[in-house]
Amino acid sequence: MGVLIVVEGLDGAGKRTLSAGLVGSWRAAGFRVATLAFPRYGQSVHADLGAEALRGRHGDTASSVDGMALLWALDRRDAADELRKLLADNDIVLLDRYVASNVAYTAARKHQGASGPAAEWVREIEFGRFGLPVPDLQLLLKVPVELAARRARDREAADVARDRDAYERDGDLQTRTGEVYDELVQQKWMSPWMVAGPDTDPEQLAAQISNQLRHGEGVTR
């Protein structure tokens, strides 16, 4: 059974770049690695409905915090069998976003923290009721909110098909979401966590994690 590792962070943090570097390093070291990104835009009706709602479609759907959280959760529920197969067939499965994203954004939208009722509700729905695999390690890519926002704007300018959604445009929400992520790290929510910065070398980080995996050690922050 493979190890489930998740990269988390704000919109525009650079998760895709870090993930690509980690995957390349692990594959070069001989690990069998699979990847999956959430939300699964273009593959999941729930993810696509959520994205469309955040861009002004489907009436007042986006204003329902719980409704949006359920769309993201249902996307992962529908991917559960695929995820379990990837874990059975690979040494490492790396996810770009997972349940902690839903916790962080849902709690932040409700002005709650990582120990509040919104966070517990998401945890119970996704890990309890839907039975999603629990991560072995979660990585928080922690960058200043201003840097993440600038990257999101630059990405929008470079790709006319990638306009920012309502979450990405809300700087206050991004700030509160970052604070919830910090609390999740401190609590070691659902797994050990590691924190990477904007200048983290993916090759060095991959080596640190893979060395611990080779020796059967617990992953520590």
Describe it.
With 221 residues, this protein is α/β, with parallel strands linked by helices. Strands 2-3-1-4-5 form a 5-stranded parallel β-sheet, sandwiched between helices. The protein has a single domain, classed as Rossmann fold (3-Layer(aba) Sandwich). The protein is built from 10 helices and 5 strands. It is 54% helix and 11% strand. Its EC number is 2.7.4.9. It is an enzyme of class 2 (transferase). Keywords: ATP-binding, Kinase, Nucleotide biosynthesis, Nucleotide-binding, Transferase. This is Thymidylate kinase.
Write the layout of secondary structure elements.
Blueprint: E1 3-8, H1 15-28, E2 33-37, H2 45-53, H3 65-78, H4 80-89, E3 92-96, H5 99-109, H6 117-129, E4 137-141, H7 145-158, H8 166-169, H9 171-187, E5 193-196, H10 202-214
Parallel strand pairs: 1-3, 1-4, 2-3, 4-5
Helix pairs in contact: 1-10, 2-3, 3-5, 5-6, 5-9
Integer count of domains: 1
* Cα-atom radius of gyration: 17 Å
Cα separation of the termini:
23 Å
Q: In what range is the share of β-strand residues?
A: 5-15%
Given as residue ranges, the uncertain stretches (5+ residues, pLDDT < 50) are none
What form results from the Cα inertia axes? globular
CATH topology: Rossmann fold
As laid out across the biggest beta sheet, the strand order is 2-3-1-4-5
Salient structural properties:
221 residues, alpha/beta, Rossmann fold, five-stranded parallel β-sheet, 54% helix, globular, P-loop_NTPase, transferase, Thymidylate kinase, nucleotide biosynthesis, Thymidylate_kin_CS
